Structure formats: C-alpha cells, structure tokens
Amino acid sequence: MLRAARLESALYEEVEAEPRALAQAFVVVLLASGSAALGAWLGAHPGLRIAVEAIQPFVFWLGGSFFAYMAGATFFRGPDTQTDFAEVLRTTGFAFSPGLLGVLGATLSVNLATYRVPLWVVIDPWMALAAIVAVRQALDFSTVRAIATFGIAHVLLWLLLNGALISLPV
C-alpha cells in the first residue's frame, strides 16, 4: 500500500498481473472506507455523513472501475490495450491507499500557503492521481489517455449517482 501511495507504476503492474490481488485490493478499499468513517465520527459529524463516508469508497471503486474499463477498453482503446474488468478493479483498488489517511481528514488540517485547509483537500487529489496511474497501468495507456479515461469515468459516475439521488422520493 505504501508503494501504491507513492504512485509507483511497477506496483500497479504487479497488481495488474496478479489475479489473487483482488482480495488485497478489496482490503485496501475496506480500510480506506473504515478510515474515512472513523474520521467522520471523530470529527463529530452526523450519522448520515459517517454512513456516506463508509459506503462512498466502495461505490467509487466499483462504479469508477466499471466506467473506466468501459471507456478505456472501447472508446480510448490503444494499440497495446489488453485488459479485463478484474485487472482494472485490482489496480484501482490499490489507488485508495492514500485514503487510509482519511481518519485524519476530518480532524486535522494542513497549511497550504497562508491558508489552513482540511486534510481531505490533499487526500482526494492524491487518490485521483493514484487512480490515473492505476488506469494507465491496467489499460496499458499513455498518461494522456489515462487522464481522459479517468475524467470520463468520473463524469459518468457523477451523472449516474446524481440521477439516482434526484429520483429518490424525499
């Protein structure tokens, strides 16, 4: 997980090639989920926020991986692209490694220039960068294609989730 958080391409290649790493990827997402929920609880957030923080990493992992696979394996497919959904799941699961700092995200802040900002302002972009590296390695892409695939997957997941939330009878 430390190597994944350091954005080491070689680690993501190893995970891509190892089918048994799916269970490990699941554990990484589970730990990131627990860390975010614990951070929300320690930050005295309401119960709904704690529940969202616990569920959100799994939704993003499964949904984001699905859309990244669909966009990457079809629309952005490169000449070297040979992958399956499980490879994308494994690599993107490890991209949640920086999320283990989520326990600190609700309670600590960092100094950026002259402003104090919550730690999640650093954690979320870090996980996004890790996801781009994961997509690049899983789909055997250039970085530009990986960024485009990640962006499209993110927008599609956002549209799906907002559409589902809007349709709730509240």
What would a concise description of this structure say?
With 170 residues, this protein is mostly helical.
Walk me through this protein's architecture.
This protein has a two-stranded antiparallel sheet. By secondary structure, the chain is mainly α. The chain is globular. It has one domain (2-166). The chain contains 8 helices and 2 strands, in the order H-H-H-H-H-H-E-E-H-H. The model has no long low-confidence stretch (mean pLDDT 88).
Secondary structure elements and pairings:
Blueprint: H1 2-5, H2 9-17, H3 21-42, H4 47-75, H5 85-94, H6 102-105, E1 109-112, E2 115-118, H7 120-139, H8 143-166
Antiparallel strand pairs: 1-2
Spatial ordering of strands, largest sheet: 1-2
Helix content: over 70%
Domain module count:
1
Order of helices and strands: HHHHHHEEHH
Query: What is the CA–CA distance across the termini?
Result: 40 Å
Backbone structural class = mainly alpha
Low-confidence stretches: none
Count of DSSP helices? 8
Instruction: Output mean pLDDT.
Output: 88
Biggest sheet, open or closed, and with what strands and sense?
A: 2 strands, antiparallel
Looking at the structure, what is the overall shape?
Answer: globular
